[in-house]
Amino acid sequence: MNTLNTTVTSEADVPEEKAIPVQDERPAETVIEEGKTVGTPFADDPKFKLRNVEVFYGEDRAIKNISLDIARNEVIAFIGPSGCGKSTFLRCLNRMNDSIDICRVKGSLQLDEQDIYDSKRDVVELRARVGMVFQKPNPFPKSIYDNVAYGPRIHGLANRKSDLDDIVENSLRKAGLWNEVKDRLDATATGMSGGQQQRLCIARAIAVSPEVVLMDEPCSALDPIATAKVEELIAELSESYTIVIVTHSMQQAARVSHRTAYFHLGHLVEVNETDKVFTSPEHELTESYITGRFG
Ligand SMILES: Nc1ncnc2c1ncn2[C@@H]1O[C@H](COP(=O)(O)OP(=O)(O)OP(=O)(O)O)[C@@H](O)[C@H]1O
Ligand SMILES: [Mg+2]
């Protein structure tokens, strides 16, 4: 394991004689030990077992030797400053990075002890098991009904029209959208408001009963009422599913997650029980972030 001394404060880049006085108690220089995550990054019976993961965009290493377990039925929140690698790491979990030409993933990534990156793996099946909700809603240019029915149809989950109707209704109910759209299921999805589109995408993701749902800032386009509905849904889903949520809202992380993982410049600095991260973080970088000193 390499050790990398990373200077993370801009003050340290300024020549000494010109150094700007530091206003807060931020340490002048903080060392991140590569591959060393403080706290509790490992679990007894993990859904995901991720070891020494590195992600490159061309020559640039965006994820630096991260090892983490994600437990079954846990909600884990990924937090950290913009550009620290949260989305990149999340996308490794269902091979969404495959679609980015210059992106290469290294290390060992297992779902239920099976290699996610095995060349023989069926990626369509993987993404049915590990669904994803993106920051920007991306409904298909189809009807509301057909958006939700899309996955169940291609995976053959319903034999009769009435079964498909039930899946569509249940998924829309869980996403808190049913009452708003039940009378216009044939309307095109792209005509909905941004917040409705996002809840539709959540309904579409859960319609195939995935084992894991990856959510990349799912509430950033939602109002507080829709946000509360999504958070309720997360709590409900976590009874049977595993959920990984990237969020810039620390209140949201505190409300919905069991564990929180703090990323910084491509490193995984700390993973701990969410209460601990927000009340007594172990790493000084985590503390600086949650107290708003940077990020
Ligand atoms: N498609 C891409 N091509 C090249 N570089 C990329 C690409 N996507 C991300 N990166 C780089 O990888 C690093 C991590 O980006 P990433 O989007 O994972 O960060 P993030 O933590 O999700 O940030 P944010 O909170 O702003 O969404 C950044 O330096 C970014 O510029
Ligand atoms: Mg992101």
TrEMBL record:
Gene Ontology MF terms: ATP binding; ATP hydrolysis activity; phosphate transmembrane transporter activity
Species this protein is from: Marinobacter nauticus
This protein's UniProt keywords: ATP-binding, Nucleotide-binding, Phosphate transport, Transport
Spans through the membrane: none
Name the record gives this protein: Phosphate ABC transporter ATP-binding protein (PhoT family)
A cellular component annotation (GO) from this entry: membrane
GO biological process: phosphate ion transmembrane transport
The keyword Membrane belongs to this UniProt entry's keyword annotation: no
Keyword DNA repair: no
